[in-house]
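Assess this one:
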Amino acid sequence: MATPGVSGVQARPVEFLLSDMDGTLLRPDHSLSPRTLDAVRALREAGVAFSLATGRPPRAMLQQIEALGVDLPTAGFNGGSIVKPDGSFLARHHVPVEAAVTALLLFEPCPQVETWVFADNEWLLRNLDGALMPLERQALGYAPKVVDSFEEYLPRIDKIVAASSDHRLLVQLEARLQAATAGQAQASRSQPRFLDLTALQADKGQALVTLAEYLGVPLERTAALGDGGNDPAMFQRAGLSIAMGQAEEQVKRQADVITGSNLEDGAAEAIERYILMR
């Protein structure tokens, strides 16, 4: 169940909602529920602009963009690539080479970590042995490309991911990577199993600002919806911030209101209760 909003938050009508995908709009099996589809449709029919901000590559957003009827620029790679409907870029930022090398060297000695590199519109791996790879392939909707080395891609990396089922290890690696790449890149856990490294400008909060400016919507008339460690950046800039029920406590504490989990159609609940009812 959703909690009441903070005083005054609900008085302002929302003109633009920016939503995370995995763990938010999508159920654990990566599907969209009928209620969520209906809520987004009702949102758009009410004249509220709607778009997506996710750690996914733009290539892995196409099916959801079509299903949700999104006709605005969308933010992939945590905002590192903001892509217009015609495929051109509103913004694009690569990971600095020095930060990319730092991350790769940090992850390499960890046998529990699968290292994934996204560059040149490809998902790059050194081998196909990882236990999480098949699940990610299903989620992204395309297969990885095996390479001998990541070296030739270093100047064009959009994102590096450390994937692991060892959540405690990822928390430790997150702290170390943040310290080692401070001022160079963004390091955050987009999901409990994923630690992302993206460009410093690849920030969902900045993506919200860029998209709001593109639409001509004041930030106080925007809303952000999410569940992961990369979503509070949106919360801090939006007029209304909504965290999913299954989000970690540190994420929930930074939101104005809490909705249900993604197993409970929490995204639809949030749209219905906090945006459409205004």
Notes: Residues 167-180 form the longest helix (14 residues).
